TrEMBL record:
Keyword Hydrolase belongs to the record: yes
Protein name in UniProt: 6-phospho-beta-glucosidase
PROSITE patterns: GLYCOSYL_HYDROL_F1_1, GLYCOSYL_HYDROL_F1_2
Keywords annotated in UniProt: Glycosidase, Hydrolase
Organism: Faecalicatena orotica
Gene3D superfamilies: Glycosidases (3.20.20.80)
Gene Ontology terms, MF aspect: beta-glucosidase activity
Cited Pfam families: Glyco_hydro_1 (PF00232)
């Protein structure tokens, strides 16, 4: 027994990391557009350096990215050549509503995504659409402060109403928010939030998250009303937290870390604030303000499935233990001495994926979907211009093997797998181009130069065989 016959193999991208063309087609400016590469990126995405415009002192990789805006037909044709069953993409909110609060949508933006969906259909690829993938219009940030304002819910639902109705003949798989728990770690990137001196950052983050949770539940209701065939998922950044030792203090800290990670999904999947979160938020004076009816909205409209990203597990030591920290990711973690690490310092832990799958499925008993998993690496073409990325094949092989075991031996219900990313694009965390994930090499360098030509890496042919054999040949 292996993967189900209709298992959804594919790849995942985000509009802000691949499209470019941010000044074309009537598109407006978004938070992710003004996140620069370089040393200031961390301060901007965490909301500690206010940046709502572009300046001449920084480089903004989203301006061109890999120019998927003009290359999408070629890119989707290559996805079709690999045999994709599904393509996870996101909608750039500001292509549809340039400032976020318009009454009427931008028809040119709607036509662009319609053409993408038609291209997918040509190759038998189902779209899996993330409605908001680290994406908030600058217009809404300037007027309302991003998701700290409850008024964002109505603007988001107006977007959803347009998307669900315009694309009901093309899309039945939807995700409401990408990595919703990242609002706690990168609040400007995740929710368009920046902080002023003296503000209670925790209170603002949890209030904004509550607004997103209510918006997600109402969007789920709307999706089901527009088309009963629609399936709506939540999405979070996953990765089990291991205690650094069996010292009870380490175990306790790891448990708390897992709870923080699951908190928002607990709400989206179960329909209520879990008691551990309610108690801690109240104790810390940061429990969000709720409107009458919010609890009922959350309760009545849970998601249909749970999707998540998995790049690595985390290793948690008690405060003051002096353990060496692992690098790379936005999540703080002690360095696990039993694991290898990527060029960016991320732990490589295939068994951790099996553990994570089991923990999530045990917790929710809803279908799961791995919508991001991959290896960021520096790919250097050889003298023939070919990229022999055996290291990526090895990484993906081991992770797919682990998820296959979770399905076959542990009984986990898994809908599909979309690798991050099928094509090289801009890194969300670092803003780099040299941190490549794709099966398809894009001739675009860190300095912005390059022809933007596409070429197949060795992993392209490997993944094609994986899909062709439904994961039997790895």
């Amino acid at each position: 027994m292996g993967f189900q016959n209709n298992f959804l193999w594919g790849g995942a991208t985000a509009a802000n990391q691949c499209e470019g063309g941010i000044f074309e087609g009537g598109r407006g400016l978004a938070n992710v557009d003004v996140c620069p590469s370089g040393s200031d990126r961390g301060a901007v995405i965490t909301g500690h350096l206010k940046m709502l415009e572009m300046d001449d002192a920084h480089v903004y990789p989203a301006i061109e990215a890999i120019d998927h805006y003009h290359h999408f037909k070629e890119d989707i044709r290559l996805f079709g050549e690999m045999g994709f069953k599904v393509y996870r993409l996101s909608i750039a909110w500001t292509r549809i509503f340039p400032h976020g609060d318009e009454e009427e949508p931008n028809e040119e933006g709607l036509q662009f995504y319609k053409e993408i969906f038609e291209e997918c259909r040509k190759y038998g690829i189902q779209p899996l659409v993330t409605i908001s993938h680290f994406d908030c219009p600058i217009g809404l940030i300037k007027k309302y402060g991003g998701w700290r304002s409850r008024e964002m819910i109505d603007f988001y639902l107006h977007l959803c109403d347009v998307l669900f109705n315009r694309y009901k003949d093309y899309v039945t798989y939807w995700l409401t928010f990408n990595e919703i728990n990242m609002i706690l770690h990168a609040p400007f990137m995740g929710a368009g939030i920046y902080f002023e001196d003296g503000e209670n950052e925790e209170r603002i983050k949890y209030q904004a998250a509550h607004h997103e949770l209510v918006a997600s539940a109402l969007a789920t209701r709307m999706a089901h009303e527009v088309n009963p065939e629609n399936k709506v998922g939540c999405m979070f950044a996953a990765g089990s937290a291991y205690p650094y030792t069996c010292k009870p203090e380490d175990v306790w800290e790891a448990l708390k870390t897992d709870q923080e990670n699951y908190f928002f999904v607990d709400v989206q999947a179960r329909g209520y604030y879990p008691s551990y979160a309610s108690a801690r938020l109240a104790k810390n004076g940061v429990f969000p303000v709720m409107e009458p009816g919010d609890k009922e909205i959350l309760k009545r409209h849970p998601v249909d499935f749970i999707s998540f990203s998995y790049y690595n597990s985390r290793c948690i030591a008690a405060p003051g233990s002096g353990r060496e920290e692992a690098g790379g990711n936005l999540f703080k973690s002690a360095k696990n001495p039993y694991l290898d690490f990527s060029e960016w310092g991320w732990p490589i832990d295939p068994l951790g994926l099996r553990i994570t799958l089991n923990q999530i499925y045990d917790r929710y008993q809803k279908p799961l979907f791995i919508v991001e998993n991959g290896l960021g690496a520096v790919d250097i073409p050889n003298e023939n211009g070919e990229v022999e990325d055996d290291y990526r094949i090895d990484y993906l092989r081991r992770h797919i093997r682990a998820m296959k075991t979770a399905v076959e031996e542990d009984g986990v219900e898994l809908m599909g797998y979309t690798s991050w990313a099928p094509i090289d694009l801009i890194s969300a965390g670092s803003g780099e181009m040299r941190k490549r994930y794709g099966f398809i090499y894009v001739d675009k360098q860190e300095d912005g130069k390059g022809t933007l030509s596409r070429s197949r890496k060795k992993s392209f042919y490997w993944y094609r065989k994986v899909i062709e054999t439904n994961g039997e040949v790895l």
